[in-house]
């Protein structure tokens, strides 16, 4: 296997492309937007420059990694020789189902189809294809080039051969695969999102402020990043989507998104990517408690 296609040039997609390319794979990075592809390559370049500055890789390693990546705006052209496709589009079920239908029609018959979804059922995604045994979840963590964990999600019909292959491949790119079964939120987000949601509820109820909540969790629980800051980095819109999947999947009120989170997303406050969330990420980089206006 030398050709890996990655769908989506955003934060997760460019990180996945970077990682595979750094380990010598030919990567076809695909996005419908030329601007998104240019931004993705710029991000990969910046991250590689950081690694060169820290002497983790050489300048030659950087150049080889970038040379291993080819960009496409057409799924059909980008996947025609792919042995594995990793879909890393927005966390939207309808969009993912549409993409997997297109992938099933455009990929070679022996291509394995993986999704980087953080919560959506792999079994449901596989159901729109004619290769359900070859569909699997590969949930990478952000930032992909640094974080070791990859949740490997077995769909109802995922074959043992595809499972083993994906686990072995994950190890080849110096990641740690952990096998989980296909239930809403899998393991990482089934545990993480209720904690983030409860942190937002704590703010919403006026128990403490943004920085205070984060400080308690960092100093008291040894978390490297507070839950509200982490939510900003994940994307508040993504957090809301995952909580909705959990709530719909389990029909349990403990997964119901906090009204404050819903209001912030409706107001376009998505966190780092929009420049504003629980903290201010504008140019002055001041950690302002912008969430107060929504309480």
Structural description of this entry:
It is a single chain. Helix 1 crosses helix 2 (34-53). The model is unreliable at 286-295 (pLDDT under 50). The chain has twelve helices and eight strands. It has two domains: 3-181, 3-Layer(aba) Sandwich (Rossmann fold), CATH 3.40.50; 189-294, N-(1-d-carboxylethyl)-l-norvaline Dehydrogenase, domain 2 (Orthogonal Bundle), CATH 1.10.1040.10. It has 295 residues and is α/β, with parallel strands linked by helices. It has an eight-stranded mixed sheet with strand order 3-2-1-4-5-6-7-8, with helices on both faces. It has helices at residues 11-22, 34-53, 59-67, 75-78, 93-106, 122-126, 160-172, 188-204, 210-221, 227-234, 236-250, 259-266, and strands at residues 3-7, 26-30, 69-72, 84-87, 112-115, 135-140, 149-154, 176-181. It is 46% helix and 14% strand.
Task: Give a brief description.
By secondary structure, this protein is of the alpha/beta class. It is built from 12 helices and 8 strands. The relative contact order is 0.09.
């Amino acid at each position: 296997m030398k050709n890996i296609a990655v769908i989506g040039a955003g934060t997760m997609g460019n990180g996945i492309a970077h990682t595979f390319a750094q380990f010598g794979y030919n990567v076809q990075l695909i996005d419908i937007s030329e601007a998104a592809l240019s931004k993705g390559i710029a991000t990969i370049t910046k991250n590689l420059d950081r690694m060169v500055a820290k002497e983790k890789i050489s300048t030659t390693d950087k150049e080889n990694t970038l040379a291993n990546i080819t960009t496409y705006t057409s799924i059909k052209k980008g996947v025609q020789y792919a042995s594995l496709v990793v879909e890393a589009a927005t966390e939207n079920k309808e969009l993912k189902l549409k993409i997997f239908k297109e992938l099933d029609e455009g990929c070679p018959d022996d291509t394995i189809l993986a999704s980087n979804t953080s919560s959506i059922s792999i079994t449901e995604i596989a159901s729109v294809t004619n290769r359900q045994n070859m569909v699997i979840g590969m949930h990478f963590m952000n930032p992909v080039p640094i974080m070791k964990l990859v949740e490997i999600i077995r769909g109802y019909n995922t074959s043992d051969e595809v499972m083993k292959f994906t686990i072995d491949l994950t190890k080849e790119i110096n990641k740690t695969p952990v096998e989980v079964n296909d239930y809403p939120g899998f393991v990482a987000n089934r545990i993480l999102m209720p904690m983030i949601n409860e942190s937002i509820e704590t703010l919403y109820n006026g128990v403490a402020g943004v920085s205070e909540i984060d400080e308690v969790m960092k100093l008291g629980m040894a978390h490297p990043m507070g839950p509200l800051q982490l939510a900003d980095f994940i994307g508040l819109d993504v957090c809301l989507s995952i909580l909705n999947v959990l709530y719909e999947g389990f029909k349990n009120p403990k997964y119901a998104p906090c009204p404050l989170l819903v209001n912030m997303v409706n107001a376009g406050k998505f966190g780092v990517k929009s420049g504003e969330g629980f903290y201010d990420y504008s140019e002055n980089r001041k950690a302002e408690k912008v969430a107060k206006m929504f309480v």
